[in-house]
Amino acid sequence: MVTAARLDFQGFGGVPIVGDAFGSPDDPAVLLIPSTGQSRAFWHGSARALADAGRYAICVDLRGHGDSGHASDGRYDLDAYVGDLKAVLAALPSRAVVVAAGLGALVAIAAIGESTAPLISGLVLVDANIWFDSNTSARLHSAFSRLTTVFASADDVLKAIISLHPDEPSLVARERLLAAYERDGSGGFRWRGDPRAVMTADIRGARERLAAAAAQIRNLPVTLIRGSLNSTISAEAVDRLQSMIEGSESAEIEGAGHYAAAEREEAFNAVLLEFLERRAPRQPISYIGGAEPRVLRDALGCFGTGVTVVTSFDGEGEPIGFTANSFSSLSLDPPLIIFSLAKTSGSLESFVAAGRFAVNVLHIGQQPIANRFARRDAPRFDGVDWTTQADKGSPILRGALASFDCTTYAMHEGGDHLIFVGQVNHAWFEPHRDPLLYFRGRYRRLHFA
């Protein structure tokens, strides 16, 4: 049997988040997040199956649950949970698939949908619903609050858990659910967490925020899983949420209620693993000549670059320029640099005729300039501070991280681009700023460990 290794993370506001890891850190990561009142042990069966299938599975306790820390400031709101999730994701060795149930699913929707950067490689939402009516929400909140009392026996604990969803199948996975409790000094069973974590305001009330976040989840493998006998989350609610998440799919686990991952473990794991192998495969995505160009573009996007604005003058003496990351040094003797320009570019002829150009390397504060020079319909130099350093120099953007003023040394055919080689006449650089970076289709910044 695959054994677990304990992991410790620092969550939002310094709250300790505890996890169990199954498998090798060299394998693709899958992060499993439980719901309100549960401990990370709820996911152990799925985690072992994932490890057997070549995944690195990490189960975590929510803040105020299990072995994770209590929030000294009482922060058990949506933003605090989102902060925890982002902190854990940032600490993992690779971009993870997130599998999240109930409250964990709502946290994942907010974190992923509201992020401007890609945080994960796939998303599995289990028993996710953002449209609880007020009566159901009040009933669940009251029932969850009762779970934090001290129970005389394990059977009493299970009766209280059953009361959450009384119309669903009887519980089979007793140990997984009882893992959230411990014996106290009097022999009773006490919930292993901070009662405030289930007694504070119900974040399911953040309907508009969650709906907006769900609608922003794009370009990501997503599936929604529901137990077919789930009495409080209808198939219609899941269909409604699925329709909001672009390209998502859904599946039902027959004969299961709220605890499908534990009660119908084999069926649930089969659905989960099939989805992962189909939409987030372990093997690298491959490009073969003649295949979809987007695949090759995504592969090339794995090479992080700086961001530049290449400038010159057109035949009328007006400044021209465009944003490019196709820039590289080529030679020191003579001093040569290169960039490439698409043959479909409207400024290609001007760059060819000019016989000169400048490359301006942008710093982290110049993303607005990068965006301006990337647009086709904007007067790119309006409001931009620039100068020239000589009569035959090209436009130099003031404040750039570095600038290279060049004469055209050579031009070469390069498929659908023309490659420009420039001989550097002058160069300037600012040693106290950090570069604006571009990686996998988004702007980035340096992170120092």
Provide a short characterization of the protein structure.
Keywords: Hydrolase, Oxidoreductase. By secondary structure, this protein is α+β, with helices and mostly antiparallel strands.
Helix content: 25-40%
Instruction: Return the domain count.
Output: 2
CATH fold topology of the largest domain: Rossmann fold
Can you tell me the overall shape?
elongated
Question: What would you note in describing this structure?
Answer:
The protein has 449 residues and is an alpha+beta fold. It has two domains: 5-279, 3-Layer(aba) Sandwich (Rossmann fold), CATH 3.40.50; 300-444, Pnp Oxidase, Chain A, CATH 2.30.110.10. Helix content is 28%, strand content 27%. The protein is built from 14 helices and 22 strands. The protein has helices at 44-52, 78-91, 103-113, 134-146, 154-162, 174-178, 196-199, 207-215, 235-244, 260-263, 265-279, 293-300, 348-354, 367-374; strands at 5-10, 16-22, 29-33, 56-60, 97-101, 122-126, 181-183, 189-191, 222-227, 249-253, 305-306, 308-313, 319-324, 327-332, 335-342, 356-361, 386-387, 396-397, 402-414, 417-429, 437-439, 442-444. The strands form five sheets. Strands 1-2-4-3-5-6-9-10 form an eight-stranded mixed β-sheet, with helices on both faces. It has a seven-stranded antiparallel β-sheet with strand order 13-12-16-19-20-15-14. Strand 7 and strand 8 form a beta hairpin. The longest helix is centred in the middle third of the chain and has 15 residues, at 265-279. The chain is elongated.
